[in-house]
Write a structure and sequence with these properties.
- The complex is a heterodimer of chains A (229) and B (403).
- Chain A has 229 residues and is of the alpha/beta class.
- Helices cover 34% and strands 30% of the residues of chain A.
- In chain A, the strands form 2 sheets. Chain A has a 6-stranded mixed sheet with strand order 6-7-8-3-9-10, sandwiched between helices. In chain A, strands 2-1-4-5 form a 4-stranded antiparallel sheet, covered by helices on one side.
- The longest helix of chain A has 16 residues.
- The radius of gyration of chain A is 17 Å and the shape is globular.
- Chain B is α+β, with helices and mostly antiparallel strands.
- In chain B, a hairpin with a 2-residue loop joins strand 2 and strand 3.
- The chains are: A alpha/beta (229), B alpha+beta (403).
- At the A-B interface, helix 2 and helix 3 of A face helix 1, helix 11, helix 12 and helix 14 of B.
Chain lengths: 229, 403
Amino acid sequence: MVLIALDNIFKIYNVGGEEVRALDGIDLKIKENEYLAIMGPSGSGKSTLMNMIGCLDTPSSGVYQFEGEMVQDMDDDQLASIRNRKIGFVFQTFNLLPKATAQHNVEIPLIYGNVRKAERVKLASEALDNVGLSDRIHHRPNELSGGQRQRVAIARALVNSPSIILADEPTGNLDSKSGHEIMEILNQLHQKGNTVILVTHEDEIAQHAHRIIRLFDGKITEDLQVKNE
Amino acid sequence: MILLFLENFSISLSAVFANKTRSILTALGIIIGVLSVTMMGTLISGLDKTFESSMSWLGKDILYVSRYEWFGDMEWWEVRNRPRMRPEYVDKVKARSKYALAVAPVMQRGASLSYGEKETRTEIFGTNEDYMETITTNIVQGRFFTKNEDRSGSRVTVIGDGIKEAFFGDQNPIGKYIKIDNLKFRVIGVLEKQGKFLGLFSVDKQAILPIGAYSRIFSKRGWMRLSIKIPEDKIEEGIDEVSSVMRHIRGLKPNQKNDFAINQTKAFEKNYNALKLAIGGTGTFITLLSLIVGGIGVMNIMFVSVKERTREIGIRKAIGATKGMIMGQFLMEAIVICLFAGLLGLLLSYICSTLLNKIFPSTLDMWLATFSILMSMIVGIISGFIPSYQAANLDPIDSLRYE
């Protein structure tokens, strides 16, 4: 089943009177339970593409369907809702709320999803348990290691049972051992049936994925199925 | 909705408490605003109480006729040149006026009172048997003097509660002799306790003498006024009539101005209302000013807060917060700051009014407290609006990148 369908997507910025095509006619289909890596040098448009897929941004032209919903026509609140329900973000810099405990950080998407307190606490503890942090739920981010923080971020991404996990350089700020652990978790998530999209410039990380897309100057230059599903 | 409300409330609390000093400094304007509005209200209601009880002693249906006006703007020498009131006016007014129910001449001077070893200086009054009808105070012990006692120059006196307390304590003073400027007077009555007039001076230390004895012993001349009781529903007519009677007594021609003044408690009320308006106006002005300053302070700090937490806003938006949710969060923070400021202001004002209550009747009333809390919340909403709107409309991508 096709989860994401990008059809002739353009993202055009006007920088000082000059037209910059961050995305220049992207066609891309992502199916359920794919494990995809988006690669490319900086300035290639991979961040823009990730923002587009993550519904943080809307295209200048083209059609973006997310599970059949037309994303390009959505207003800000509808985009917020789709991000809340269908997309789990994992960022390079973790992006946890510094003053909130691990538990609370994981609960936030549920709060915005209007989930009741008891249910929320249960789901959040389960999500933290899944990433092996059940003994750290009352710690704040500054009391956790980088790897642990990224695991909290993954728990937060997972807690709403989203359709896709969108990981932007998930190991970029981690030492190799922690990075390895995080990739293990993502691999497991894929095995359990999640759709995982990695954005990275490291070949080593991209090798975990089953399909690799290379971007250059806002265009897809290569789309390779490296492993079979 | 309620979930989000609670979440926003707890975020706001932690944000406010994380920056205690900043929050308090920010809120100073609001604190002062609440303090000034509540203290103003307290002051006015305290004044009202004092004024009402003081005014009730004077009686709305009494005209006070004398040389000077209570709240006139006449030069002192003009007043001085007016002829004095004279005891014989009493009978003339009684004879000519149909509205005058009672006419009492009142003369007054300082005198030294003593009883045995005890001695005190106080005011003594000389008046006639109508006097009791022109005041609202009652006799609590004994009786007032009669017309005959007045005519015959009997040395009798009715004393105030203060004198009775000072000289006799729990003893019965009736029939006892006290000395007024070394002359013996027999106490025949005691006046009810009154307290202080307008909170200024006690009227309980006084002695009332028949004017017959008073003028024989102390002076025939000297300051004097007439207290004239008129029917309560005929005040205006009464004033007109007494005025024309007085003009007749004085033999004034139609083109001559009055050389006397007819005073009434209304004059107090008019001046009191002007005073109240002045206090209210000043208080409102200070309140508004400090609320505006406070509101700008809160707005400013909210801009800082939004700036500081740009990344947090980005994160929240990425994981599904809508514009409304972000707006609610920051609006709540502004309201919480102002609410705390309001409560703090109220606490200060409660302390102030409790302290003040020792010298002046002042209590903080519930209505005013509720109003001031509501007022601070409104300031919170107004001053938080633009920063919150700004926060809500931040671009999630840019704010996620913000360092």
